[in-house]
Amino acid sequence: MMAIKVILRVLVFTIVFSMLPKHQAWGETDCYGEKYSVLERCKENLKKVAYVPPKLGDECCRTVAVSDMVCVCGVLTEEEMEQIRSLSVILIARDCGHPLPAGTKCGIWTIPPSLPMRARP
Questions:
Q1: How many domains does the chain have?
Q2: Residues spanned by the domain of 83
């Protein structure tokens, strides 16, 4: 009888702790959904070959406007960084009118104190 109680307790603890996502257990903000939205809706602008600035009001900029881009930059994986350029993420945020604050780390890039807004034609 005692063995069954111990096994049930272990089972309950295992189930409870397996339900906690790792990033939340580490105290990370959950912006993975936003990251996937930005990567999908801005994929034409994020190609590694050449940066193509998004147009204000297009799907990419609308997604950037509602996303926490500082968090998105922070959760980009090495595999994703091999597919895109982290500088493009920074430029997209800036060109959509939502520049990242100085000191933000995005991949291998850290935003310098003065990355000026690009003049829009």
A1: 1
A2: 26-110
